[in-house]
Every structure is written in structure tokens, then in C-alpha cells.
Amino acid sequence: xxxxxxxxxxxxxxxxxxxxxxxxxxxxxxxxxxxxxxxxxxxxxxxxxxxxxxxxxxxxxxxxxxxxxxxxxxxxxxxxxxxxxxxxxxxxxxxxxxxxxxxxxxxxxxxxxxxxxxxxxxxxxxxxxxxxxxxxxxxxxxxxxxxxxxxxxxxxxxxxxxxxxxxxxxxxxxxxxxxxxxxxxxxxxxxxxxxxxxxxxxxxxxxxxxxxxxxxxxxxxxxxxxxxxxxxxxxxxxxxxxxxxxxxxxxxxxxxxxxxxxxxxxxxxxxxxxxxxxxxxxxxxxxxxxxxxxxxxxxxxxxxxxxxxxxxxxxxxxxxxxxxxxxxxxxxxxxxxxxxxxxxxxxxxxxxxxxxx
Length: 357
Description:
The structure is a single chain. The protein contains 12 helices and 9 strands. The strands form 2 sheets. Strands 5-4-3-6-7-9-8 form a 7-stranded mixed sheet, sandwiched between helices. Strands 1-2 form a two-stranded antiparallel sheet. The longest helix has 18 residues.
């Protein structure tokens, strides 16, 4: 921020606050900076420019969220004011607060159902942070049994691994995502991880329509495509075959799709169909462990179908150490690598042609 009064730790505190704010982390859990840190006018200007200025920030959280954060910051600033002749709150901050105050008078139901911009920052500190913005309903847990309205912790955990240590799974590869929801993982692969081609699939036409909007929002339409794919559907051939008539997917991703055992027969059928056509296919499955018996049921189904399943040693990043793709560590999250029993280690790696039924 250009001032000798500020240490790197001060800047990092403000930057992590900004990143969590743009990801719409619960306002109660945000690492609010102290009054002494934000009292200088240049810091107030930085906050307005980076967090609240609608002309300079293309995608901001919803109005009620912005209001709650600004209210807390304003209270902190007011408590830090010691000398009325020297200390002041800049006009831009007060004008913006007044504006959001007037717009935040909507009922709680509207806020819960509202789609808003949630911006995820890659988990590294860099001068120009790379981001992925997803239009989602972060406060909507489910709607008619649909869990595709938000990005879940298992996806963020897997994304952190892929971005840091697992990039080799994606770079230069063709990727298909099952149960992609709003498309965070697929867009990450196409935007930041160097995937050659990505196809995000989901069984819900409404969710895929929203995902397509996120593809356009992140300008990755040249790499990422969308398609409806219902598990167990024979349409799998139409999804997998490209113009050449050969399948070219190297990797399948699935995040937090192992929550309903009733879906497992259809899911396993789809996996088996993929392996029948693509013996060298690799599948990365990330799942929050809510009920051990549910996970055991899926693993048993994999064993019955002679899939090779390996749990990868991917430690959950403690929340205090996370610098992007923030997620709660309340639940255990496991990541499994699933391959076909027909997979031959002697085969040369890379894109492969696959048999068609």
C-alpha cells in the first residue's frame, strides 16, 4: 500500500480480509482489521476501492452482506477516533454506507434465495490475485432436494489440492466433471490449471443453465462446455464421443456427490460405462464424511465392480493457514483416486482413445 508505516503482516491481514469478504465468508467469522490499522485515510480509501466501490469492483457480494460488513467496520472506525481535528471517516465510505443501508431493507427469505456473486481467490499470495466468480445462493442449503445452488467444502478442498500439488492431474488434459453444480471446479480447471478441454455435467437442466452463465461470466467458453448427464443414462456415449469418434477424457472429477446412497447404483453404472470405454481413465472423488456408512456403501459398490480405489493423503488445510478457496474444516473430507482394474501401468501416459460400445 506504499507506506513505510505498514508492515507486510498488516498488508496480508487486509488482503485476507478482502479475499474472505469477496467469498462471502460469514461476516461473524471475518478477520476484521483493528481500528488503528484502518484509521489512516489511505487505508479507508483502499477499503472503499477494493471492497465497496461498484464502479471499480465488478462483482460484489449482495447488499445485505455488504451492509453487515460496513456496519462493523464503521463501528470499529468510530471507536478508534481519538482527535476530532485529525481523525475522520472519508466521505466515500459514509456515502457508500448510506447507499447500502437504504437498499438492505429486504426480508430474510429474499436474501436466502438471492443469487449473488461469490468470488474465490486462488490459495497463493500474488500481486494480481487470480479469481473465479460464481453466481450462487450461498445461504440456500437446499431447494427441493437440490444441493447445486452453492459451492461446498469438498470442492474447495479438492480445488486447493489441484492448484497446489495436484496440477499434473489437469494440466494439458481433458476433464469431465460429474454433478458439477454451478461449475466452480470445472471453471478452475479451464481458467487456472491449464486443462485442454473441460466438460461440466449435471443431471439438472436448471443447474446446467446456471453453470453455463458462470462459464460466460468467467470467459472460459473456449475451453469449458456444459452438458446434461443423468447418471445411469445410456446418453453417456453422446457425451463422451467427440467429432473424431474417439473419447479423449483423461480425468473425471466429482465433489460432494456421495451424499445419497439411493444415487449410488446409477453413479456406479456411469463410472463403469466410462471405464468400459476408457480403461485408463482416472477419477478424483472428493467427499465430506457426514455418515461413515454412506461412504462405506459407495466403496463397497466400487469393490463389487472391481474398481481400484485409493484414498489420497491430502491433509485438510487448517483454517488459520488458508489464504484462498476458504472452507470450513469442521467435517472430515476424503479424496479418492478411482481407476479401472483394466488399467495397465505399462501404457504410456497421456490422452487416450477409448473403446465405444
